[in-house]
Amino acid sequence: MLGREEIERKKIKEEGTTVIETGNHAVSLAAKFARADVVAAYPITPQTQIVEEIAKFVENGEMNAKFIRVESEHSAMAACIGASATGARAFTATSSQGLLLMHEMLFAAGGYRLPIVMANVNRSLFPPWNILVEHSDSLAQRDTGWIQFYCASNQEVFDTTIQAFKIAEEVNLPAMVNLEGFIMSHTHMPIELPMQDAVDRFLPRREHLWKLDVDNPGTFGSMSNPEYYVLMRKGIEDAMKEARTKILDVNTEFEREFGRKYEPIECYKCEDAETVIFAMGTIGKESKRAVDELRNEGVKAGVARIRLFRPFPEESIKSIAEGKKIIIFDRDCSFGKGGVLSTEIRSVLDKPASSYVVGIGGLDVPYTTIKKCVERANGQKDEWITEVHP
User: Fold this and answer.
1) Please, what's the largest Cα pairwise distance for the chain?
2) 390 pLDDT exceeds 90?
3) N or C: which end of the chain has fewer CB within 10 A?
4) The dihedral of CA 127, 286, 380, 317: what is its sign?
5) What is the CA angle 269-271-277, rounded to 5?
6) Per-residue pLDDT tens for 292-326?
7) Rounded distance, CA 224 to CA 232, Å?
8) Is the predicted pLDDT of residue 4 greater than 60, yes or no?
9) Cβ(68)–Cβ(38) under 8 Å?
10) Side-by-side strand order, sheet with 265-268
């Protein structure tokens, strides 16, 4: 039986009001509003609150879903694959080492073309042990065939998770929504919740093109010769290209229904900028303050926060970067090559760019650090920032 507090809490969260919630609970609420059918769960810091909250929803009857408690993150993704393959709307969440343990099954989800949605709470990788934010866990999965989003507010987390289900189901690819450990996962922010019937209109049930069916048996993932294998792998690439357009279409529909929009790249004062900062996640948000300070000092700076990493928005990056000095901030590193975002951006630009690896292991990246890096960037510099105020 629900207590008075739980009844009021349930009522408030169903009436389209604004609530103050953590990034983790923003994900839980989004999975509930999206009417996920199957949630496979294994705990890991700092993600655990997501699946704990969903477990409460299921136990209290607020969410009509099958909650599967598994023995590992590898099994969590395997369970989602099985569920999605039958036509169910499947969801899970993980972080850091858990995401790495899923690695094999991430390729399976992408290869089977299953529209699974997963939230990943970005956290540094071991060794040494560290539970604070870094993007290396998710960027290490960039070749698995998953659409990848990077958020910078709890409202964006909620909205992007809802959108991710629709996009995934329209292009038959899995989607990963990334939010930063503790900076977002455990921070309370306002979230405007929609009415359930509005989400249902936006996210109707979609019949899978293919699924496991006892009345119409079939084989999935069996041995294939090269002639068929190459076509199936090319199909993933073609679907990623299709996703570029679908993401824009879904965003337009979302804005029409809910009044909020999210472009693949969020630009701030880029139009007349002579220097543009590229970054993902909360560093992209923090860079706005640095841009304002630089503008006050006569430096025409802007920031382009990349929300969509896969498929990579290369044409938009080219357009934003044209005629401008480029500075890139990475909260990750591909050892031996430098920042992953920097490598990707440089691959589509025919011009030099300054690159900074920052915030590794959760090291704070205040706007003052960003501003100092911009001031000393020379268009060629690659540098690790290993202190808060370099």
Assistant:
1) 70
2) no
3) N
4) positive
5) 55
6) 999 999 999 999 999 999 999 999 999 999 999 99
7) 10
8) no
9) yes
10) 265-268, 301-306, 275-279, 325-330, 354-357, 382-384
Is this structure's pTM higher than 0.85? yes
Answer whether 55's CB lies under 8 Å from 41's CB.
yes
Dist. CA 185–CA 190, nearest whole Å = 13
Higher per-residue confidence, 195 vs 16 = 195
**Tokens coding 167:** 């996009």
DSSP-derived secondary structure for 362-384: G----HHHHHHHHHH--SS-EEE
Cis peptide before 128 (omega within 30 of 0): yes
Q: Which domains does the chain have, with CATH numbers?
A: 8-258 (3.40.50.970), 266-384 (3.40.50.920)
**What DSSP string runs through 208-226?**
-SS---TTS----S----H
Query: How big is the chain, counted in residues?
Result: 390
Closest to 100 (Cα-Cα) out of 67, 115, 122, 69? 122
* Residues 333 and 387 sit within 8 Å (Cβ to Cβ): no
Sign of the dihedral defined by the CA atoms of residues 334, 233, 117, 248, in that order: positive
Residue with tokens 């389209």: 16
**Phi/psi of residue 78, nearest 5 degrees:** -60, -40
Cα–Cα distance between 283 and 280 in angstroms, integer?
6
243: CB partners within 8 A, 6+ apart: 147, 167, 171, 173, 311
